[in-house]
Design a protein that fits this description.
This protein has helices at 20-37, 39-43, 55-62, 95-111, 135-143, 158-171, 263-284, 302-313, 326-329, 336-343, and strands at residues 4-12, 16-19, 66-69, 120-124, 148-152, 178-185, 203-212, 222-231, 237-238, 260-261, 292-297, 353-360, 364-372. With 374 residues, the chain is α+β, with helices and mostly antiparallel strands.
Length: 374
């Protein structure tokens, strides 16, 4: 079986950042206004008063301190509390494609490859802005890549699932090199009026170049030693928005058309699932956990990441062993583990081992074991 390598990664970071202090101030202004407007119903017990958020609550619940977004002003407007992203004409590059192309160009540069070297483009992310034509084909066209392209969605595990799909196609001879792009505008499906989740998500885009390991000669190259995917149906993380909502207009605007989750159940069920996936994957590849130099975990929640790292390593992770980027980026869905890998992999030595891992709605989880080539 041909060895496949990640030869370059790229990152697009939006221009705007929202601190916890800014987000909480906007949320609390909304809460005060809501409670004042419904004071009579609240006094009569017909409406439950909303509870204010706090910076301490957000930090303790998630480890998040800030998040990047593609549009800031309307998110912080208590009368709007969602991004207002201008619609583009069909002749303009879509915003998801624009973000993806920016990340892809850096990935290609780090891999020392040109668009003509790529003949498979996958856009893998949680929320696509349209059904067709595929965003991936738009990215392919904007870059000038030959071959084929398609979109896929496995929620927060989209990047690792896309990585395995691309690697398999290269091994099968269906592509000579692939580009996996993960543009995530998570702020668009976040309910900024829900105290339990208003702080969770941020926006970003990442990209990954994959090719046969024998051709990956740059300093950013990592051989993919093995991939493993797992899914298990659950309603505990859900987003019901889709094109069929138009057939039921009374449902549009309801909370379940945005991101909803039962956080405690997710923690209880996903943490052991992911820990067992990684440990079993390592065992099958005959790699002892103590031989891992780094874990690049999905950036969902600091408490989940700490727990999974302890389960895999059998001890508390040392500083730098399980790097965190969610403090500044927040949860960026499929892009989170790739951001961590992009920012915290160049310092490792030849033959160092690591695991890129995603987990999220579905439930879905992906484990990718890699070895530094140079």
């Amino acid at each position: 079986m041909s060895a496949i390598a990640i030869s370059g990664t790229g990152l697009y970071t939006p221009p705007f950042s929202i601190s916890n202090e800014e987000l909480v101030a906007a949320f609390n202004a909304f809460v005060k206004k809501f409670n004042a407007q419904h004071a009579t119903e609240i006094a009569a017990g017909k409406v439950q008063p909303l509870q204010e958020s706090s910076v301490d609550f957000v930090l303790k619940a998630s480890g998040i301190k800030a998040r990047y977004v593609v549009e800031k002003d309307h998110i912080l407007d208590p009368d709007v509390m969602c991004p207002r992203i201008p619609e583009r004409t069909n002749e303009q590059l879509s915003i998801l494609a624009e973000m993806g192309v920016t990340a892809a160009k850096e990935a290609l540069e780090r891999a020392d490859r040109k668009p003509a070297d790529i003949d498979c483009v996958l856009v893998a992310c949680s929320n696509l802005q349209r059904a067709y034509p595929a965003i991936a084909i738009e990215v392919q066209n904007a870059l000038g890549c030959p071959g084929f392209a398609f979109d896929m969605n496995v929620a927060c595990s989209s990047a690792t699932f896309g990585l395995q799909a691309a690697a398999d196609m290269i091994r099968a001879g269906n592509a000579k090199a692939a580009l996996v792009v993960n543009p995530e505008i998570c702020s668009g499906h976040l309910n900024f009026r829900d105290r339990d989740s208003h702080f969770i998500f941020g926006d970003v885009a990442t990209a990954i170049v994959l090719e046969p390991a024998e051709r990956a000669n740059g300093r950013h190259a990592w051989e993919v030693l093995g991939t493993r995917l797992k899914t298990q149906f659950s309603n505990n993380i859900r987003n019901n928005f889709g094109f069929l909502n138009r057939a039921a207009p009374e449902g549009v605007g309801k909370p379940d058309k945005l991101f909803v989750q039962e956080g405690r159940k997710v923690f209880k069920e996903v943490v052991p699932m992911v820990s067992e996936l990684i440990v079993g994957h390592l065992a099958d590849e005959k790699i002892a956990p103590e031989h891992l130099a780094r874990l690049w975990l999905h950036q969902a929640n600091i408490n989940m990441n700490d727990f999974i790292a302890r389960k895999v390593l059998g001890r508390d992770p040392k500083p730098g062993e399980s790097p965190v980027i969610l403090d500044t980026y927040a949860n960026t869905s499929s892009a989170g583990s790739i951001i961590a890998f992009h920012k915290y992999s160049d310092d490792l030595k030849k033959d160092d081992l690591g695991v890129i891992c995603s987990f999220g709605a579905g439930y879905s989880a992906g484990s990718v074991i890699v070895r530094k080539l140079h």
